[in-house]
Amino acid sequence: MLVVLASAFDEVAAAVVAAWAPWQAALCVPADLSVPGWRLRVGAPRETVAVVGGRVTPVATITGVLTRLWHVQPEELTHIAAPDRAYVAAEMTAFLTAFLCDLRCPVLNRPSAALLSGPGWRPEQWIRAAIRAGIPVRPARRIVRPDAAAEHPAEVAAELTVIGGRVFGTADPVLRGWAKTLAAAAGTGLLGVRFARHGAGYVVAGVNPWPVIMFPGGLDAVRDALLGEPGATVPQ
Amino acid sequence: MILLWGVPGDGPLRAVRDLLRARGEPVFMLDQHAIRDTALELSVGISIHGTLRVGTDAVALEAITAVYVRPYDVRRLPALAALSPQAALRQHAHAVDDAMQAWTEVTPALVVSRPSAMASNGSKPYQAGLIRAAGFDVPDTLVTTDPTAALAFRDRHGSVIYKSVSGVRSIVSRLGPEHRDRLGDIANCPTQLQEYVAGTDCRVHVVGDKVFASEIVSDSDDYRYAGRRGSAPAIRACVLEPALAARCRHLAAALDLPVAGIDLRRTGDGQWYCFEVNPSPGFTFYQEATGQKIAESIASFLAAGR
Q1: Looking at the domain B2-112, which fold is it?
Q2: E strands along chain A, which residues?
Q3: Rounded CA gap, A159 and A144, in Å?
Q4: How much of chain B, in percent, has pLDDT values that exceed 70?
Q5: 137-196 in A: which are within 8 Å (CB) of B?
Q6: CA B159/CA B173 separation, integer angstroms
Q7: SS3 assignment, position A109
Q8: By the CB < 8 Å criterion, does A87 face chain B?
Q9: Which residue of B has its CA nearest to A135?
């Protein structure tokens, strides 16, 4: 079974589940965490039980998880008394952190303590990771003042999407290599990498930790990465 | 220059600041109450530089050699309490907080402690996995929405406690017969149950390679709140055997925490369990009871920088 963890309001997630119906895909939303059946025992990952789409699901039957949720938002928990929603959302987020980190199957993107999908890095951390990997960058700059006008996003010349071991968006082997290297450095199997022009070449200008996947070949690449098929290297 | 980030009334921050000033160490205070007068410019590329301003004071970020990170949750700052989420000052406060967190993640200065390292405490079962991996025993722990599984877990251990899964502070309580009627509520939200381990609590503060241990004697399930029930805990300094002290240092290092508060319990037969690691401990509670020089150790650690 492939599981898509997402907000109940995420239309892309619903479309992904529909497209993956032959692979027994199912949607897991925050309200599923208010259904009896979840079990997580510290140090015993094989005993974990999830509830997906309202059905109790032993973790061994889950072959891959696509996470499209950064935190559980209180607004999703309309079945919980309003004064308790923020606390319950925090508890659910903390639980999902442990649950997703414990999974032995591919997870795109595996969570961190800070976020349910990916490392939760700020732009400056991505820039430093690129520098450490030997990739040229455009410095990240911020000016924070009470009277500062909104900053305009810098121009992006190309955005590549890394999915598992594949790269979409350009045929340029140098950019493809840099994008793969940066995704691997961050341990993310799904990443958008933005490049800006610099003289005759390119520099990394930033990333999109939640890239578009609904394009020809994109959704299939995500599915292959989650199923661990050849050519799809999923960082663990 | 040593940067202190938080509010001046915070006990640990104040204790460290007073010691640094008494020693004549250069200190820059990023007082969150002064959010209206705070500005930050940050550039991160091959070099990391910028300027932090609070009122008429300014410091170059590249001149900072150490940071003590003790910020309050921006949403709870008194200056912002009456403001709407869209208010410009509130948005400015969040922007400062985000920029400071970004800088503390990438600066080569000594940071006590980086936000990414402190985040492990936001999920107790996740952190328990890290504690196990670092070689400590942790009590058997189940997080569940299944009342039947909860009852089976209690029956297996005889006595269990429940506490929050997240970093939201909760009072640790024993699951008793009076909870039977409310057990069905577990279905609404994953609930953390833990085997009750009888024994003596020990809070260990690790500061770099220094270890300060305090033994706590209390008949309460959560000694932090024992005073409310009229029986304040007895806290006294104690000395850990060298191998255990080394494990505590190793655990703090494994979590990338230069300063940590480690909650241990020693059973009657001498077995040690670790419950959790506080990444930004309020050490003054223990220092006042024991006379241990924890603030002095942190001040020295910051002054040494990196």
Answers
A1: Rossmann fold (3.40.50)
A2: 2-5, 26-28, 39-41, 49-52, 55-58, 64-67, 107-108, 140-144, 158-163, 166-168, 190-198, 201-208
A3: 27
A4: 95
A5: 137-146, 148
A6: 11
A7: coil
A8: yes
A9: B46
Q: How confident is the model at residue A70 (pLDDT cuts 50, 70, 90)?
A: very high
Residue of B nearest to A86 (CA): B168
Residue A221, helix vs strand vs coil = helix
Contact at 8 Å (CB) between B275 and B202?
A: no
E strand map for B146-238: 160-163, 173-174, 191-195, 200-207, 210-217, 234-238
Element (H, E) at B69: strand B66-69
Q: Domain spanning B198-292: which superfamily?
A: ATP-grasp fold, B domain (3.30.470.20)
Inter-chain residue contact B146 with A33, CB threshold 8 Å: no
- What pLDDT, in 10s, does the model give residues B101-128? 999 999 999 999 999 999 999 999 999 9
Nearest to A122 among B101, B123, B187 (CB): B101
- Band of the pLDDT at B176, cuts 50, 70, 90? confident
In whole angstroms, give the CA distance from residue B106 to residue A75: 33
Q: What is the Cα–Cα distance from A160 to A170, expressed in whole angstroms?
A: 7
Nearest to A89 by CA among B232, B190, B162: B190
C-alpha to C-alpha distance for A150 and B95, rounded to whole angstroms: 11
B180 SS3 class:
helix
* CA–CA dist A132, B208 (Å, integer): 26
Q: Which residues neighbour A143 within 8 Å (Cβ) at sequence distance 6 or greater?
A: A151, B39, B40, B41
Read off the pTM: 0.92
* Closest alpha carbon within chain B to A125: B106
Mean pLDDT, range B62-74, rounded to an integer = 96
Confidence check: pLDDT of A143 > 70: yes
The residue written with tokens 């898509």 in the block is: A4
Angstrom distance (rounded) from CA B14 to CA B6: 10
- Interval A89-109 mean pLDDT: 96
Sign of CA dihedral A34, A38, A42, A45: negative
The answer to whether the Cβ–Cβ distance between A122 and B105 falls below 8 Å is: yes
In chain B, where the domains are located: 2-112, 140-195, 198-292
ipTM of predicted complex: 0.92
**Which numeric CATH code is attached to B140-195?**
3.30.1490.20
Q: How far is A188 from chain B (nearest CA, A)?
A: 17
Closest Cβ–Cβ partner in A36, A139, A142 for B145: A36
| Degrees, nearest 5: CA angle A167-A170-A175 | 75
Assess A73–B contact: CB distance below 8 Å, yes or no: no
Q: Does residue A235 register a pLDDT over 60?
A: no
Is A89's pLDDT higher than 80? yes
| Closest residue, chain A, to B49 (C-alpha) | A141
Backbone Cα Rg of chain A: 19
